[in-house]
Known about the structure:
Layout: H1 4-30, H2 33-38, E1 61-62, E2 67-68, H3 69-78
Antiparallel strand pairs: 1-2
Protein name: Small ribosomal subunit protein uS14
Family: Belongs to the universal ribosomal protein uS14 family.
Keywords: Ribonucleoprotein, Ribosomal protein, RNA-binding, rRNA-binding
Amino acid sequence: MAKKSKVVKELKRQELVAKYADRRRELKAKGDYAALQKLPRDSSATRQKNRCAVSGRPRGYLSKFKVSRIVFRDLALKGQIPGITKSSW
């Protein structure tokens, strides 16, 4: 489980990106890079980090399922992800 502070910080970052998305798009279209620099740093979408929805883990993230590899394996073994079965031959 990731630190709660890291998960909360990432949520705040997502809110900032959503808040400033239209403004950033307008400024980029105008080419006004001085005004872009005055916006908060965390309002840039490239500063976002994908995190697991269950555990908050930043590494081993599977974007199709929005969970980490560890949580994915647990859910798959429990049969909670439709269409996923453990392979055996």
